[in-house]
Amino acid sequence: MCLEAEKRVEEWNNCVRDQWNAKSVYVVGKATAALVRSLGLTPLGEDTGTAEVLSRVIIEREDTNIPPLFFPCGSIKREVLPTALRGSGVPLETLTVYQTAEHPNLEENLRSYFTEQGTPASIAFFSPSGVKFCLETVRRLSGDQLPQIKFAAIGPTTEEAMAAEGLRVSCAAEKPTAGHLAAAIAKALQ
């Protein structure tokens, strides 16, 4: 249902929203929590920061005799949440609702940056997909200067993806927020 259509907003506000609020709405971070709140729903788990921690919250709160939890997700999600929930008997139905794809101008934009600014002193990755889509180009453009670049990760999942690609991660945010990333970078630079 498109909530931006005027007649749908009224239907949402008058009856559907309350039906959804009767259920638990789990999120892993602050950005998703803000979107959920903008719909008039109450998010749970926004401070968990990772699927692993969120799964523990859900397992503690939910009974195994419930209808399946609905998990809308992206095309390259990790299996941490589904595996943990199913392993604890919490029923789950997943539905891929978006495709993660490389920005069509990514390589051109990176090449332009490297040409105009030179090899960056540091690079922060905000997702495993960012690592997947950018790293080959960054390696090619930085050449033998790659070891001098300091790499930062928004959180542990991104840090794992970077390490799996052989990068030395200089710092990782304690929680996946811009503020925590800035604090980690500041600490690494001291």
TrEMBL record:
Describe the location of the Tetrapyrrole biosynthesis uroporphyrinogen III synthase domain by residue ranges: 14-182
GO terms for biological process, alphabetical:
protoporphyrinogen IX biosynthetic process; uroporphyrinogen III biosynthetic process
Per its UniProt record, what InterPro entries does this chain match? 4pyrrol_syn_uPrphyn_synt_sf, 4pyrrol_synth_uPrphyn_synth, UROS/Hem4
What Pfam families does the annotation carry?
A: HEM4 (PF02602)
Provide the Gene Ontology terms for cellular component: cytosol
Q: Which GO terms describe its molecular function?
A: uroporphyrinogen-III synthase activity
Q: What is this protein called?
A: Uroporphyrinogen-III synthase
